[in-house]
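Async update (no meeting this week)

Hi team, since we skipped the sync, here's where things stand on the single-chain job. The sequence we agreed to prioritize is pasted below, unchanged from the tracker. I ran it this morning and attached the output directly underneath so nobody has to dig for it. Comments welcome in thread, and please keep replies under the output.
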Amino acid sequence: MLLSQGTAIFADALIDIHHIGSTSVPRLKAKLIGMRPFVRNIEVIDDFKMQMTELGFELI
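Output:
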């Protein structure tokens, strides 16, 4: 659910999103969601930071 909400924020700017990290491994319990968005224009990526933070994502 949270990942799909994150994907919705990027809307038309998003080319693809890859689920990476420990939660992408089946049956491995973890509390981190790693995702790597691929956007059409990297210069607009900062526009999404506040919305992602409000959803509870920690951006690194």
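Quick observations from my side:
The first helix runs from residue 2 to 10.
The chain has a mean pLDDT of 77.
Reply here if anything looks off.
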